[in-house]
Design brief:
Length: 97
């Protein structure tokens, strides 16, 4: 009996939401250098991030937790209720940002 390894060629579709254009570009460059990721969109505020998530249906949303006009908790609840298949990762610049 032969074993067959199934390899998914499907890339992880990523939406980046950060008010800092340079941070978005750095994340995009980092992710696009990896063969398993496809950056499908960028947003510079929370309303646009949610709108793009609804439209683009990413697998992963990278969200700056200090994004203007976003309350991370409420955003996560809205995303979970509307798009339960989208995984949310909150990003923090840490101290000094």
């Amino acid at each position: 009996m032969h074993e067959v390894a199934l390899v998914s060629s499907r890339k992880v579709r990523v939406l980046i939401a950060d008010s800092d254009a340079r941070a978005r570009q750095q994340l995009r460059n980092l992710l696009e250098a990896q063969p398993d990721f496809d950056v499908v969109g960028e947003a510079d505020d929370g309303a646009l991030a949610l709108q793009l998530a609804r439209w683009l249906r990413p697998n992963l949303l990278l969200l700056d937790e200090h994004l203007p006009a976003v309350r991370s908790r409420e955003f996560a609840v809205a995303l979970e209720s509307e798009l339960p298949d989208v995984r949310l990762v909150l990003l923090s610049g840490g101290a000094g940002t």
